[in-house]
Design goal:
- This protein is mainly α.
- The chain has one domain.
- The chain contains eleven helices and no strands.
- Helix 3 packs antiparallel against helix 4.
- The chain is globular.
């Protein structure tokens, strides 16, 4: 359980860090770029993927490149959502991307659903809709927050689906993950070099390194928890998602003085119930 708690804290720390650094005029895309440099190195050291025997012909390079584009793009959407919608709503939208992933599993991978999983998906969709509607008010700012929340929700689900599809083609998870990180770094670095005519400012590179460490720690601890509790995947799934939502709410209320509308409160409750239903459906 300590691993799940640590993974959840790392996940929320990434969101808090992005929000605070943006307020201090750090550049998100530069931080995100160097985050993937560190994450790719740590991924190689931790998971020890067999990159030497990658087949140039059989490796699904188009999917890897697509994921390499999606990863920094969705991370940037996350940063924008944290600024416009707040950490509370952003964390819920990010965690409930699993609802769309499960729908894709049903329609694309022909996964069988039981009643609890259906209830969890329906509640999750309602939770996200309530969160989006609670942002609806006059002004371009609220419209932007709705768009970025929706992009975070859909984006993380699309990454999850493409990663599952890539590993389903025979590429090991660790190899796919490492190639994704490397591709994301190379493409992002090319973008900032074209835009800024440099590889980034030193302060952004340093912040990106810390971001990459915490981002990878979140993934590594979560995977390690699944390995240690391989007979209880529901516990890991529920524990991680619920803790991230709860920590996200607390950090939003305590550190950033975000306010909860009635629709947001109902959405939060439905989100937790949704995750619980999806977890129990695994038992």
């Amino acid at each position: 359980m300590e691993l799940i708690l640590a993974a959840a804290l790392c996940s929320v720390f990434v969101s808090i860090f992005l929000k605070v650094m943006k307020n201090r005029r750090f550049d998100p895309i530069q931080m995100i770029t160097w985050n993937y440099a560190i994450a790719s190195v740590l991924c190689y050291l931790w998971f020890k993927p067999d990159l030497q025997h990658i087949s140039l012909v059989k490796t699904p390079w188009l999917l890897i490149i697509a994921l390499g584009i999606l990863l920094p793009s969705v991370f940037l959407f996350l940063s924008k959502s944290l600024q416009t919608a707040g950490i509370l709503k952003t964390e819920i939208a990010q965690r409930l991307s699993v609802v769309l992933s499960l729908l894709a599993a049903y329609f694309i991978f022909n996964e069988q659903f039981n009643n609890l999983k259906i209830v969890g998906i329906v509640l999750g969709i309602f939770a996200v809709l309530l969160i989006l509607l609670s942002n609806k008010s006059k002004g371009s700012g609220s419209n932007q927050s709705i768009v970025y929340l929706a992009l975070v929700w859909v984006g993380y689900a699309l990454i999850d689906v493409l990663l599952k599809y890539t590993t389903g083609l025979g590429l090991q998870f660790s190899v796919a993950l490492n190639l994704m990180f490397i591709c994301a770094f190379v493409l992002s670095l090319s973008y900032i070099f074209i835009k800024f005519k440099s590889i980034g400012q030193f302060k952004n590179i340093g912040a990106g390194a810390l971001l990459g460490f915490m981002n990878f720690a979140n993934i590594a601890l979560y995977v390690k928890a699944h390995m240690l509790l391989k007979d209880s995947p529901a516990v890991v799934f529920a524990g991680m998602n619920i803790l991230v939502v709860v920590f996200g709410v607390l950090s939003g209320l305590v550190f950033f003085k975000e306010r909860l509308k009635t629709a947001s409160v109902v959405g939060l409750v439905l989100a937790i119930i949704s995750v619980a239903c999806l977890a129990y459906s695994m038992l």
